[in-house]
Amino acid sequence: MNDPVNQKEPTMTQTPTESSNTAITDFGIDTTTMSTSEAVRDYVSRLRAGQLGSLPALLGLVALVIMFASLSDVFLSLNNLANLLAQGAGQTIIAMGIVFVLLVGEIDLSAGTASGVAGAVLAMHFAENGNLMGGMGSTVFVLFLAALGLGAVLAALLRIWAGTAISVLGIVIAASGMAANPWIEMLLALCTGTAIGCITGYLVSRIGMPSFVVTLALFLAWQGVILQFIGEGGVIGISSSPVLNQVANGNLSVLGSWVLCVVAVGGFAALTLGRHYSRLRRGLVTQPTSIVFFKAGAMAAIGIAATALLTINRAPNDNIVITGVPYVVPIVLGLLVIGTYVLNRTQYGRHIYAVGGNREAARRAGVNVTKIRASVFVVCSSVAALGAIVYSSKVGSVDPQAGGLNTLLFAVGAAVIGGASLFGGRGRVSDAVIGGSVLAVVANGLGLLSQPAAVVSIVTGLVLLLAATVDALSRRRAASAAR
Amino acid sequence: MSEPILHITGLNKTFGPVHVLHDIDLDVRAGEVTALVGDNGAGKSTLVKCIAGIHGADSGTVEFQGKPVHIRSPKDAAELGIEVVYQDLALADNLDIVQNMFLGRERGSSWLLDEASMEKAARETLASLSVRTVKSVRTPVSALSGGQRQTVAIAKSVLWDSKVVLLDEPTAALGVAQTRQVLDLVRRLAEQGLGVVLISHNMADVFEVADRIAVLYLGRMVAEVHTKDVTHGQVVELITAGRSGDIGLARPEHAVL
Ligand SMILES: Nc1ncnc2c1ncn2[C@@H]1O[C@H](COP(=O)(O)OP(=O)(O)OP(=O)(O)O)[C@@H](O)[C@H]1O
Ligand SMILES: [Mg+2]
C-alpha cells in the first residue's frame, strides 16, 4: 500500500510547501468546509459523543425561566429582570476567574473569602478616607503591607511580573494614604486580590501542595482577616460614594444603552463574519456560512431585544423613572470578551488548556507548567476582587460575612453548571456567565415565590448536582467514544 | 565515517534505589538510522527521556555537534534541534491536531496566535505523511484512533527544523500501511542528513531501516554494531542474554539492574 506520490517526494519534512497542492489533494478526506446539514449532523454526533458544552445549562435556563414566569407574575417584569442581572453579577464574575483554575484541573476554595478581603480593604479605605493604618491599627497594617509584599516577591520568584507589579502598586496605594477616591479604592481591591492570588499560586504550584488543601486553609484564614479588618458585628457602608454605589445599582443612559448594543452586536457580527470570510478565503477549516450568519443574527436579535426592553421605564411607581441597561452588563460583557480572547487567541490561553488536558505533554512541549498553574490562581483572585467590588456595591456595605457563606460555592457551581469541567481541560468563560444566570434565576425566582432559604439552598444544591452528573456522564461518553 | 552529531558518554540514571542506566555510551550520526533495541524495561525510554531533558541524568556528558551541552528541559532539547516521539504519547486530548502539533512553539505573537499559518503547515505536514483517515485537522485528539494519534505525534516531530529525531516505538500502534509510511519516513529523514534513533521491538523493521544497532541489556549498552555485521539471531541473543559470541558483556550474569 505504498503511496507513489510520497515515495518520489524526498523533501517531505520541514518545508513541504512547494508541493503543497499535490499534498493537499493527497490529504485523504480532510475537509475544510461543511454544508449546513453536515454541520448539524456533526454537531449532533458530537453531542452524542458527550461533548455537550453549555447546551444542558442553556436548556435548563430556558426551562427555569418558563417555570418561574408561569408561577410568578413579577418574575418577567422588567424591574425584576434588571434586578436579577445585578444580583447575579458578583458571583458570575468570581465564577469567570474560577474557570481559569478549573481549566488546569485545580480548585480555588478561597476565591470567595479572598474577594471578601479585597472588599473589606476597599470599604475601609473609603470609610477611613485613605488612612488604612488608622482603620486597621498599626500592627495589622504592617502585616497587611507585608502580605502584599510577599505576594510581589512570590510572583517575582514565579516570573509572573504582572503579579509583582500589581502587588507593588497595592503597597504604594496603601502606604501613601491617599484620600478616599472610588477609583483608587477599586484599584486597591484589585491589587489586594492579585497579591493573594500570587501567594496561593506559589503554594500550589511551586511548593506543590494540593490546591484543595491550600485553598481550604486560605479560605479559613481570609475569613479571619475580614473579621479582623471589619470587627465583630461591624458593617462598613460604601453606598454614600456615588461611584461605588452606581457600579451595581446604576444604569447607562438610554443613548448609552444603544451605543453599547451597537458596539456589542456590531462587534460580534464583524468579528465572527470577518474571521469566517478570511478563513474561507485562505482555505481553512470553517463552519458553514449559513450557521455563522445564524449565530450573528441570533446574537443581534437578543442584544437588540434586551436593549429595547431595558430602555423602557421600569420604575415600580410613577414618581421616578428607571431606564437603561445596568452598568453590570457592560462590566460582565467586557470581562467575558477579555477572558474569551485570552483563552482562545493567546499563547497563554492555549497553554492553560494544554496543562489541563495533559500536564506531562505540556511539559514535554516546553510549556512552563509551574508558571501556568500559579498564574491561574492570580487571575482567579484578581477577578474575584472585581466580583467583590460588584457585590459590595449591590449590597451597599461590607460586613464580616462578605465573600463567605455561599459566595464561593455559588461561583464554582456557576462555572460547573455552565459546562466547565472539574477535571480540567474543558470550559470557557462564557460557561460562567451561563451558569451564573441559571443560579441567579433560581435564587431570584424562588425568592419571588417567597420560598424559605431552606428551599433555595436545596434547589440550588440539586441543580449543581445535576450539572456535575451531566459533566461526569458526558466525560464517560467522551472517554468511551475516543477509543 | 562522519563525526557523531550526538555523542553520549558515561550516562547514569537512577530512580531512587533503582539504577536504570549504567555508564551508557551512545553515538548518533547524521544521515544514519541508529536502532536502539532491548527487552522490556531495559531502559530505552529512560535513555530517550534523559536525552530529551525530561529526566535529569545523574552523571555523564552529552556532546551535540562536537560541543558539550547541558539539556535541562525539553525546551533546551528542542532549541538544539532534538525532537522526540514518546512511547507514552505526549498529546493533550482536549486540544485539536493543529494545537497539539504547535504546542509550546505557537506561531504568531504570544498575544495573537497565527492560527491560519499553523493550520496550513499542519495540514501540509500531515498530507505529506499520507494521513488519509483524519477528517479535519481541527479534530480534537480525543477523537482520534491510537494509530492516528501516533501519526500526529510523528508529524509534530518532523514539523520542525530538527537535526536529531528520536522515535520511541513509533510503529507499535500502527497498521500495515502506516508502519510502511513511518519506516519510509525514517529512511528519508536519515537521507536528508538527520540523525535518527529508532526504538523498536520488531527485528524485521530494525534490519530493514537501521544502519547501526545499539543493544541495551538491563540498563547497560552491550553492543553498538553495524547492521550488516550481525545476524538476526545474534541481535536477539544480545537482547536476551547480553552476549553473543565475542560481542556483548563479558560476564552478563553479573549485570543486575
Ligand atoms: N519514572 C520512573 N520511576 C521509577 N522507575 C522507572 C521510571 N521510569 C522507568 N523506570 C524503570 O526503569 C526501567 C527502564 O524502563 P524503560 O521505560 O526505560 O524501559 P524500556 O526499555 O523503554 O521498556 P519497553 O520496551 O517496555 O518500553 C524499568 O525497570 C522501569 O521500571
Ligand atoms: Mg519504552
From TrEMBL, chain B:
- Write down the CDD domains for this protein, in alphabetical order: ABC_Carb_Monos_I (cd03216)
Residues of the signal sequence?
Answer: none
Q: Which UniProt keywords apply?
A: ATP-binding, Nucleotide-binding
InterPro entries attached here? Answer: AAA+_ATPase (IPR003593), ABC_carbohydrate_import_ATPase (IPR050107), ABC_transporter-like_ATP-bd (IPR003439), P-loop_NTPase (IPR027417)
One family name in Pfam for this protein: ABC_tran
ABC transporter domain: from which residue to which, for each copy? 6-243
> What domain of life does the native source organism fall in?
Bacteria
Q: Which GO terms describe its molecular function?
A: ATP binding; ATP hydrolysis activity
Q: Which PANTHER family match?
A: CARBOHYDRATE TRANSPORT ATP-BINDING PROTEIN MG119-RELATED, SUGAR ABC TRANSPORTER ATP-BINDING PROTEIN
Q: What is this protein called?
A: Sugar ABC transporter ATP-binding protein
